[in-house]
Task: structure prediction
Amino acid sequence: MSQSNHHSFTPSRVEVKDLRKEFGAKVALNGVSLVVEPGTFTVLLGPSGSGKTTLLRCLAGIEQPTSGQIRIGDKVVFGPSTVVSPDKRNLSMVFQDYALWPHMSVRKNVAFPLSNTSLTRAEKQRRVADLLERVGIAHLAERYPNELSGGEQQRVALARALSSQVGLVLFDEPLSNLDADRRDQLRIEIATLTRDAGVTAVYITHDQSEAFALADRVGVLRQGELVQYSRPEKVYRHPKSAFVARFTGVAGEFAVESVRPIADKRVEVTLPFAPFMTVEATTSENSPYDVDPHLFVRAAGVSLHPETSDAGAPGVIRDVAYTGRGYEHVVDVGAPSSLTKVFAAERFERGDKVKVMFDPQSCFVMNAQEEA
Amino acid sequence: MTTTLSLSTTRPRANLDWLRRLRWSGLLVWLVLALLIVVPVLTFVAVAVSPRLFHQGSSYFTLANIATAFQGYTGQGILDSLWVSVLTGLASVAFATTIAWIVQRTNVYGRRVWSGAMWLLLLVPTWMTTLGWIDVISPGELAWALGVHTLFFYHMFFGASGIVFVNMTASLPFSFFVISVGLRGLGSEFEDAARVHGAGRWLTMRTILPIIAPALLSAFVISFAETMSDFGVAFTLGANAHFPIATYTLFNAIYAFPANFPVAAVIAGVLILCTVPPVFVQSRVMRGRSYAVLSGRTRAVRRHHFGPVGRLALTAGVGLFMFLVIGLPLVGAISSSFTNTASFITSSGVHWTLQSFKDVFQPLPSYTTLGGPLWTSNQLGLWVASGTLVLAYVLARRMASRSPGVGQKIADVFLLGSIAIPGIVLGVGYIFFYDQRFITSHVVDLYETMPLLIMGLIASSVPSQARLLTGPVSQIQSSLNEAARVHGANKWRAFSSTSFPLLSRALVWAWLITFTKTISELAIAQILYQPGHEPASVVIETYLGTIFASIGSAATVITLAEMIGVIGIVLLIFRLVTPAGWRRIGEAGSYS
Result:
């Protein structure tokens, strides 16, 4: 009986319930629950050791959770009485180190997932050729992995993952070994090819810009716990904790002198280095600001003005870097820490005195010590 | 149908299932290893202090045998073995470092030829080298025929210097390969960093030497342990030179009349005690460096470029050295095989003849022909190499585990210890343990049977092959297998399509090394062969001790040629039947 493991293509819904994974005494995942809707692109973001790789490997079936439940499509693949092996989960994966088989040519690597399907030989060949064409490496089909550059190898890994028309594709930091130019280019290709294929994608990274560029939903992991799982815009504009705010990128973080509520989740704060002005900011119910309140400012919410401006906190330019479309500045505002990555279309020189203004939509007040 | 599918894709509580299965497979492996190595050796060594327990004396506990073993002939043997092994280790490291440096770090001609010669040297057993040298420098032999009177070297050879020299040549390949790896991994940036920070040549060398110190120590320990365990030189050269070596005195204690098992057991214990600690020290020093993963980050080696004259001189030097360690003994054995007298030269001059080669396959009164024994040796080689490969791979998988547990650590310690157990100790342990009445009467009577010899040879090969395979096994990144699994391959297909092709070259070489080592093995074969089914090495040894030495030489040449032939055929088959991609693995720069 010839039975295909990879069934006809339908994007999978992924449901993770209260997942826990222990490595000896170390808890790698602690009660993680999330739902990935069919056909969406979810990015799990977190620093090293946050458990994102473990979660991905649990989804793949490479790692076996300690407890909890994982459902892929209509099938429970891990549960109290069930463990489905990786080859039966109807998924594919792009590995961080590409994991291309060095003894197989590019064509054979890409064709591997098709060998268990009921496609005819001609259909398989057509499908492999089509995919290699789409990822732009058709001319390298007979080469071996070690004869390819890092970017080319990653394209092979991507083609292999998409070749079998599975419902779920997992990405394990696929761009981390590439240089900046190739990373941007491949990120776009991953986004477009995956969405064109219509599959559900779960992607892990520690790079917040990569996460926001790719994701329909972003999950932020910290010490084995999913601390925020939402649309990228919401994670960016309404971080649930100081940790999420920091990890998704802030230009500055300052202790505040006073906090005054002005509306629901809105406060007005004064800063020690600019006592004459107030700054409006958003609060988070998960991070009460009654203990050690700090103002967190996104880079996009800081603007620089000449010293002669009436409003704004005084500051001094400490460093400036040309970025092509403008300038990024480091500004000393008289606080222990400086503002970084402050963009301006015009260049302010080192030592220039400036005024700094904050956009209320990009400012948050949260408990700096309460991380989760 | 749906139900069937559902059942086939799920299994109940695999967590416990997996643990249960692991425990059973682990137990099975340990049981096999216990029967192959631990029990026979420990039982035998126990005779030293409790002879009565095994019907070998009157005391249940005594230390008298230990005192006896350290006196007289046997005591001298232990002492000789120790200082000869230390000297051999030092010489081996010195020569291997020089040759490895020239081959790896200079533009010497014929780099592949010298590495190939080292492989050939690895295949040639010490008793063949010894006999080759005897055929060259003995009065009336090749050197004399060429007008070189080598009486001085002949006397030197039959003594400590000859024993150290032959053992040094035998351990040279191990040292060469270990040090070569160290030198290859030593990227030029270390030298560059020292030089740009003001270090002269001498200080630069002193700075980078500690980086390869673990490789040097490792080479010394391997050479020391190999020499301590060697039986071939002890049996062929030591015995004739009246220079007692511990492995030979152990053999003597068993085959003397009456046999003295308790004293032999003490010698066995001493041999193990002498070889195990250095191997452990080496393991500690090499921890974390032994199995370097090949990667794209492997640094390019910068070679010193000598001018034309220097390059030629370097090549001539290496060529001369390699000729001395491998070429001359082979020439000696080959030339001797083309005579049919005790001497190369007779009163009527030099006589070349193929008679010895004919005699090898024609029965002489009271002597065995080579045909049957060589066939037996090949059968043994086939069984031993195949059995060893399976066990060694299973052990290598455990050793290379990414999540090392207690089992892996025990396996590591056990294999290290087992490598150091001399073949002669294993052999004697086998005849002692498997001849015990409770085994022969109640379990199985394997004494003087072919299966016992096969078991003994597997036991002696598994530890070193398992450690040899651990390197390639641990170089396979786990993601390669995981990628196969998540892309639809079951466990078997994931293994056969990823791990197996990647390991195929290493497996073939492990099989070939075990096969050839089995054919040339003397210590265990001499002790455990089934009467009437002598292996080739035992028959050759019998010839060489008689006036029919030239027949022994011819048999040696045929055996060696056969071994090389098998290697050639197996490698040719590997080349013909495997896909091109498989053969790329292991070639320089192919796996990054």
Summary: Residues 50 and 60 of chain B are 5 Å apart (CA to CA). Chain B touches chain A at residues 5, 9-15, 18, 477, 479-480, 482-491, 494, 497-498, 501-502, 579, 581-582, 584-585, 589-592 (CB under 8 Å). Chain B has one domain: 24-584.
